[in-house]
Write a structure and sequence with these properties.
Elements (H helix, E strand, L loop, with lengths): L1 E10 L2 E11 L4 E6 L5 H9 L6 E6 L9 H4 L2 E4 L10 H8 L8 H10 L13 H14 L4 E5 L7 H14 L5 E5 L13 E5 L2 E6 L1 H7 E6 L8 E7 L2 E7 L10 H10 L1 H8 L9
Parallel strand pairs: 3-7, 3-8, 5-6, 6-7
Antiparallel strand pairs: 1-2, 1-4, 8-9, 10-12, 11-12
């Protein structure tokens, strides 16, 4: 469980989060989306105790992350976008760091290393960027931590590895584990993350399940440029326009994450109105 209440955070005089509140529960693979500079990485660092809020409350599994309590640390694994791996082989790394995670599953670790085709006899600092990332993903899942935070995990992975990643993360999701994936590569996360959280200008502007999205929004193709105020978002395509509308007719249409993200960040008031049951705001 992660609970954030009325949190403010700033880098010196640059305000990043203002009165941010968020509650996340186990049993979900959350997608954390936002523009570059929206604070996704900073938010993960606050959750893991690497940064400290200026005001407000942050609790993770009933611990205050910034206190770095050993009982807190043994149950959280944070995979940052930028990381360092020492000049150790996989076996030595496991012997050194696995004891910090009492529930570490060595068989699972070896299974994942094998699936990712990672060498056991090569020093980790000599691996490629993508191999290093796959190693840390394997170690993180094997740690059996209840909180698993991943920042841009598919950066550096080739297409087959991204497919492996999605399958492995989906199988790692359990009712007791809370996974957060921060990414700007939203297409890599289709059919994996649910719910979707979008942060923008210091606030959470969207936090909905996929089911909620498909119930509330629909996507249509039209030949002419839309002019009426019922359109939440429109995008020019080769054969016309793709438009996002409130799902008043209860149509069952899929909305890809990129289109959803663009709709939310360009027309947050319209989206808020739709999801709160009000009238739509026109997209300009």
């Amino acid at each position: 469980m992660i609970n954030i209440e009325n949190m403010d955070f700033a880098y010196k005089k640059t305000k990043l989060f203002l009165n941010l509140s968020l509650e996340l529960k186990p049993g979900n693979i959350y997608g954390l989306l936002g523009k570059n500079g929206a604070g996704k990485t900073s938010l993960l660092k606050i959750m893991s105790g690497l940064l400290f809020p200026n005001t407000g409350k942050v609790k993770v599994n009933n611990f205050i992350p910034g206190q770095r309590n050993p009982e807190f640390l043994k149950d959280i694994f944070f995979l940052p976008e930028e990381y360092y791996l020492p000049g150790l082989k996989a076996e030595k790394y496991k012997k050194t760091y696995a004891p910090f995670y009492p529930n570490f599953n060595e068989n699972k670790f070896l299974e994942l290393l094998s699936e990712f085709k990672l060498p056991m006899d090569q020093k980790l600092n000599s691996l490629s960027y993508g191999q290093k990332k796959k190693f840390l993903i394997s170690f993180g899942i094997a740690s059996n931590s209840r909180i698993f935070l991943l920042d841009e995990p598919t950066n550096g992975l080739d297409i087959p590895s991204k497919t492996q990643f999605r399958r492995i993360i989906a199988s790692a999701g359990t009712e007791n584990r809370l996974i957060i994936i921060s990414t700007h590569q939203v297409r890599d996360m289709e059919n994996l993350i649910d719910p979707i959280i979008i942060v923008d200008e210091g606030k959470v502007i969207f936090n909905e399940s996929i089911e909620g999205v498909t119930n509330k929004l629909t996507v249509k193709k039209i030949s002419e440029e839309p002019v009426n105020g019922t359109v939440l978002y429109s995008e020019k395509e080769i054969d016309g326009y793709k438009v996002v509308l409130a799902n008043k007719d209860h149509d069952q249409t899929d909305i890809d994450f990129e289109t959803l993200f663009n709709t939310v960040v360009t027309n947050p008031d319209g989206i808020k109105s739709v999801f709160s049951g009000g009238d739509n705001n026109e997209h300009n």
